[in-house]
Amino acid sequence: MKGQLSFIEEEPKCVLMSLREEYYDAMLEGRKHYEYRTRYLKEASDAYIYISKTKKSIVAKIKFGEPIIGDAQTIATIAEQEEPGSYNGMMEYLYNNIGYAIPIEEITPIEEVPLSELQQNFPNFVVPQSYYILDKKPELLSFLESRERVESCVKKR
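Structure (tokenized):
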């Protein structure tokens, strides 16, 4: 209705994100509390994680909190607090642009989905360079949701 507030919470956007295996492992081990990006959504999100190169599979779903968006120095300072010695590398990565420190709230491993299976079921499947929004690919999103194993949730925060 016009002029009335809505109290219905929207589901967070869902993305498919590529990660290197060592970063995913650091998240699982509790050593990495933020994912750093040069661009991302401005709100909390869910992300299915595709491990590039080593596994070539989707392995988990991560619940991300609302990102901290800041200049390179702000984000590099967060990275330095999380991993001493990473400030300069983060500054190089962000090259004085805006960056995103995306808090990792929860990790849920899923039944692994190899690239070959994705390509077989979705002939137009493309591995994300960084990430893409799955809400625009409802068939793929439904397929990935069917692979979730709720009992194996790993809480991070």
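The chain has a mean pLDDT of 90. DSSP finds five helices and eight strands in the chain.
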